Amino acid sequence: MTPLILLVFLYLAVVAGIYFAQDRLLYIPGAVGPEQAEHLGLEPWPDRGSYLGFVSKAPPAQPKGTFLVWHGNAGSALDRVYYTRALESRGYRVVLLEYPGYGARDGKMDEASFVADAKQATRLAAERFGGALYVLGESMGCALATAVAADPDNGVEGVVLITPWANLPDLAQSTYWLLPAKWLTRDKYDNIRNLHDYGGPVAVAVCERDEVIPSRHARRLHESIRSSKRLWVFEAAGHNSWPTSPKERWWDEVLQFVTHHTAGE
């Protein structure tokens, strides 16, 4: 076997291995489940036996609305209690959602499973809580937030996206540029497509030094949005070092924007 043929063979073997192992490479679930929720002031929702996420044990008495939150890829929902603290302190109910296969939940880890689960949670939240409904996603979670917002029947009044990508195949290609990653990626998580016909306000937060999702991907998404939109840039932040503290002023700015703007403003 000549060196060139051997090199081609090895390259094709790597491509095949990545294609068949991509789910294990993409999804990084944490195992923190309902047993830890009480220590954080949360409880499983809608119930412990078949939970979809977590809500506060002491939510605002008269919430201004409900935020459905989908966290980033690695870890679990209970690693993101900062969302509950930031949004509840400003008068909103928060449902901190968990993915199938993450935490203590069963289920398949892929786009179809995640989107179906997100839509189920949205319908249930609308039935249980009523009132204004908003969605927030972080990183991979942005794609679930936009998938829910894409369906006008869900009545999503505003969208917040933190460190989003435009679509997963393009991100994969820019990361693994030596491989035909764009064509190998099965799960698309296409935020641009999801928001194409959405008419409500969309807030996009970008980490300028994002080492996982380079900021150009989020900026491309922001540029594609046709409804009311606003961009926040965290200049000194990386993918996991953006300002999460409830005391940060940008939370107030984002909430003011997504809860008071309408399409065309």
Strand content range: 15-25%
Number of helices: 9
Q: Give me the count of strands.
A: 8
Alpha carbon gap, first and last residue: 65 Å
Percentage of residues in helical conformation = 25-40%
Main β-sheet, spatial strand arrangement = 1-2-4-3-5-6-7-8
Shape: globular
Q: Report on the biggest sheet.
A: 8 strands, mixed
**Succession of helices and strands:** HEEEHEHEHEHHHEHEH
Classify the secondary structure makeup into a structural class.
alpha/beta
| Mean pLDDT metric | 92
Q: What is the structure about, briefly put?
A:
The chain has 265 residues and is α/β, with parallel strands linked by helices. It is built from nine helices and eight strands.
Mind explaining what this structure looks like?
With 265 residues, the chain is α/β, with parallel strands linked by helices. Helix content is 37%, strand content 16%. It has helices at 3-26, 81-88, 111-129, 141-149, 168-175, 181-184, 191-194, 215-224, 249-260, and strands at 42-45, 53-56, 66-70, 93-97, 133-138, 156-162, 202-207, 229-234. An 8-stranded mixed β-sheet has the order 1-2-4-3-5-6-7-8, sandwiched between helices. It is globular. It starts with a helix and ends in a 5-residue tail after the last helix. The model has no long low-confidence stretch (mean pLDDT 92).
